[in-house]
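Shift notes (night). Ran Cytochrome P450 while the centrifuge was going.
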Amino acid sequence: MALLHAILLLLVGAVTTFAFRLIRHRRLYKDLPKPPHSLLWGHLALFNETMQKFPANTALSIYYTAIAQKYNLKGIFYMDLWPFGPPQMILVSPDAADLVTKVQDYPLHEMGISYLAGLVGENAMGATNGDKWKGTHRLLAPAFRASSVKAMAGVVADQTVELFTPFLERCADEDGVFSMETAAAKLLLSISTVTILGGHIAEDAKVQLFEDIGDIVAYATMITLTTSTNPVTKWRTWWKKTRAVKRVDMFFEGLVRAREEVTRGVGKDAAGLSILDRTLIEGRGGYWNNGPLDPAAMRLLVDNLKGLILGAYGTTSDTLCAIFLMLAAHPDVVHKLREEHNQVFGDLKSSRRILKESPYKLNELHYTTAVIKETLRLFPIGFSPRTALPGTESLVYEGKAYPTLNQMIIPCQHTIHYDPEIFPSPGKFDPARFLDPNVVPAGSWRPFERGPRACVGRDLAMDELRVVLLLTVRDFDFECASIEPRTTPRASFTDLDLQLGDLAFQENAFSAKPRGGTMMRVRRTERGK
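Came back to this:
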């Protein structure tokens, strides 16, 4: 009896303590801007209700957009998801987002750091803050200078014509359905083995690398799922990821040692250097000595190579899928693209030659760039939560102080991109809005984010997308497969699902990506036959 009595007292004490903590926490939101708030549930019930309106595993930023527009929330608002999620401060205006990305560089939130470090290592630039991040950024950034990136256009062209075009031709001849996600990932990984790693990779090693990166991405996707996963499947996915990381580490270590010897004595302005080569040369200028790499320098390089390759495999290929998705639904845009490509570059043979001789001519593809930007507006891929600056407790926006302590601070690109006051008719695919530099307000287009932590590979990614479009859209027509258009839209901010069905809403993965593998058909145009 005494034992039972003691257990009951412990239970009563635990429940009472939790109730006091719950009430105290909920009251913190009393005077803060927010959607309707429950003393019992906070915003948990509201968030769950919002999730139910969208397909399974929809990207989180889409939920914030739905909530912000339903309750007319502007600038900054709060989401109280305790105890199942961190308290969140959502920034939904360009000026508010700039305060934590551009005006001041707020540190990445520990959950984002833990997520990326678990995939590629704790030394990856995207998994660090403070002086460690600054040092890594100074090491890597020179390899992504505009002159270095533009010199890679010929490599991207060769990979596209020699790998992607024959694949599309086979698919057209077979008239079958294929996964654009897989095809784009293979293309971008193959491009990256040259632009990032230097192309010194045997074909069997490249195949193994693709499988290993795929296993890492599969694990990254699994741990972001909002639906439950079989425990055995979870363990198996984790085990495959763990083994894949070990293989990739060993492979990259060998590659780094080989390139270290080859680049010794080579100047940083030499032609034909990869990003790895330039980073090794830059590192000898003060990051490590001229002797063999010590274990810390090797770990730094390997972790960041994984981060760069994973980014190319995921984010750039996901954007390419979204572009083809939109082109399949907008033949008028395809027509304008083809006209621009013919006018600026001529036929395929001359296009490859010009890309190698005059890569800066890519900058003349204004409409192509607008198509890429509009796709990234509709389908932003990034999600980069921040945390409060050390020693501060609030953020001042439009003359008012907003508490930041213990908050996950989320600059929400998706919500900004769908704000009708910034982008009229935000659910409409309209590349022309990016042709006039005065139409889009400064700071409102931010798929690569802004400020010091903006994506270091953004110029390379944009050029890769321009080149792939230049060398494919005149020869092929793309068609979405297995689409089930809705009769009524799921959301107030877009009606793309009336055309694309659930493909209109990205799903959670390493980055927000088109769902279902982006299944497509392709046919040759008259020019491509």
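The CA atoms of residues 108 and 364 lie 36 Å apart. The longest helix spans residues 295-329.
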